[in-house]
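Operator note (shift B, R.M.): manual run for cAMP-dependent protein kinase requested after the automated queue skipped it. Running by hand, logging everything below so the morning shift can see what happened. Input copied straight from the record, untouched. If output looks odd, do not overwrite the archive copy; leave it for review.
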Amino acid sequence: MPSFGGLLKKRRTKDSQTLSKELEAGSSPTAAQTQTSPNAAEHHHHHHHHNHNHQSHPPTNHDHISTADSAHTYHSSNQSNRSSDAQRTHPEGQPSSMQSAVTQSPAAHPQSGQHQSHSSNVASIQNIIHSSHQSGQSATGGQASQQSQRTTKGKYSLEDFTLQRTLGTGSFGRVHLVQSKHNHRFYAIKVLKKAQVVKMKQIEHTNDERRMLNRVRHPFLITLWGTWQDARNLYMVMDFVEGGELFSLLRKSQRFPNPVAKFYAAEVTLALEYLHSHQIIYRDLKPENLLLDRHGHLKITDFGFAKEVPDITWTLCGTPDYLAPEVVSSKGYNKSVDWWSLGILIFEMLCGFTPFWDSGSPVKIYENILRGRVKYPPYLHHDAVNLLSQLITADLTKRLGNLHGGSEDVKNHPWFAEVTWDRLARKDIDAPYVPPIRGGQGDASQYDRYPEETEAYGQPGDDIHGHLFPDF
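Run finished. Output pasted below as returned.
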């Protein structure tokens, strides 16, 4: 069961001092759709949250790292360190069979708030694909048009919601399941303690996260509905995504069959294409940050490392297993780091482990990344190996997504040849797996239980940090 990963900063997240010590200690060269607003007059629901109670699976948790301008990610604080887990092993044997399920794809949620089923027009997973001789119908991630700047500052207050159970906790605060008193839909509210954000030097990235989420609107991205603050806390109202993390599903399955990995990779590709079209680098792609909605489609969550970068940036942040070599070597980098990370994600989905993982310290992972030698298991499809070799490459003149054709080069690769991109963008297909949501809307059974907050929210007092978060 997932443990709410994408909402509160993980304990495994490293600060700049920790990262510097790691690098200096090693021999690494670097040592030098329609949605509903909580207000009754608007419409739709959902949110990102996932608990990283990443149990005993050796190849699990991806260690976050961040520098002085480290991103405020928000993950559960009770997780083990993925990259330093000495028992991480490469799973052997055949892939576990993936439960195949037919689900009804949510084209849109009616204003009444009820999920409608579409069975007549919804394709099965086989219909994501078309025969390779057909002309490919291209759908860009940018198809989900960006709305005009949404008003989210001070849009809500505690009085608008009924607080329910805690979905996750972390070093900054916690995430609550809440129900709107206006439209009765369920949301997730992330509550961040301002004093902790300031203490951990996460002011810039907390503001960045809010700014980035306010700019984007896409079927495969989490939605920010509104924010506010009081004397002690920051509040962010976001989708409640019932199905938990892709990470948990991957660990149960050990690795995904080729069509399943392709389905999830294709949805991520459209989301990255959309973000890049708005000059946003995501910088934290991994299974823990991919949530499943009740129909089995993805939502990318945790924008703590996201940043608007029209050209290049130098910030060292992310998860060791997923860092591109130009990030590790402290060079300037651009949006192509996300395409590198897509390659790592596809590799992990197909193999059950990341290509540069090492049982030692993260520094060993960095050294492996800089060496750049990838061993592809023999069970991988040759088209997958070809795609991965063009994504997981240090040569930026050869990395797909960074070439003249941009994201179209990724989408037009033979491994994706069967994907019908426009249908996928509309969610006009069935996902390969449907989460076991039992209780209807507001079912939080996929998330762990936590002790509840004892300090009441909304208490009056001196707001000494409020000026640092002007957009809230």
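Quick read of the result: The domain at 16-425 is CATH 1.10.510.10 (Transferase(Phosphotransferase); domain 1). The chain is about 25% helix and 10% strand.
Leaving this for review. - R.M.
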